[in-house]
Amino acid sequence: MNKVFKYCFLDLIRSRWTLAYGLFFILSSGGLLYLSGDSSKVVVSLMNVIILLVPLISMIYGMMYMYQVRDYVEILLAQPISRKSIFGGYILGLSAALSICVVLGLLIPLLFFDPQQIFQAQWLMLIGISVILTIIFCILASFLVLKHENRLKGFGIGLFIWLFLAVIYDGLFLVILVAFEAYPVEQMALGLTLANPVDMGRVLLIFQLDYSALMGYTGAIFEKFFGTLQGTVIIGFAYLLWIGFPSWLLLRKAQLKDF
Hints:
By secondary structure, the protein is mainly α. The protein contains eleven helices and no strands.
């Protein structure tokens, strides 16, 4: 697995597209920090970019790369290497390369313009959410490539998954809350939030920025949940499920697939 990871990581980190991805975040965060003197406002702006862009790029770029190396993977499968090592190495390499681009893209301008903010909870949370979303959507992208040999179908399903989790889900969430406003929906709202990694990241960042008061009574319920040790453990477990279950599906599909 280590050799596959090293090959995949070095191949991606030298790619012009990967470098452009990191440069985009350097310019975005650097420009916002230069134009605004309030780091909290910068985090809000970057949150909106990251919540939408990181899952999309991780999904599309991950699928493009995995489809590109598909023939090479089939050659590796003919060698005395376990399928778990091959696909595990590729997932780790893909996730690590894209995560490093995002992390450096956020940290380099921060170190230059406002280095004392680097250990603030809001920036650490922003970086952590970026890495977690990158890993989740890279795993989903790899699974779709393995499941669908037709590239058009694979990309179509991948785009729909991103659109549903990042955009459509919020609309359905609001419709459900409005439809059942006469009933106690706090627990259901918490459950629906935990069912979507993008929404979890957005809510966690909102509470780090102390904007929960803008959410009214629902915000108070969320703050009571997310501010406790039990809530933190549940959120961590939910993210582990979002990483672990797709990984298990991917490795199981790799073991059973006839190449």
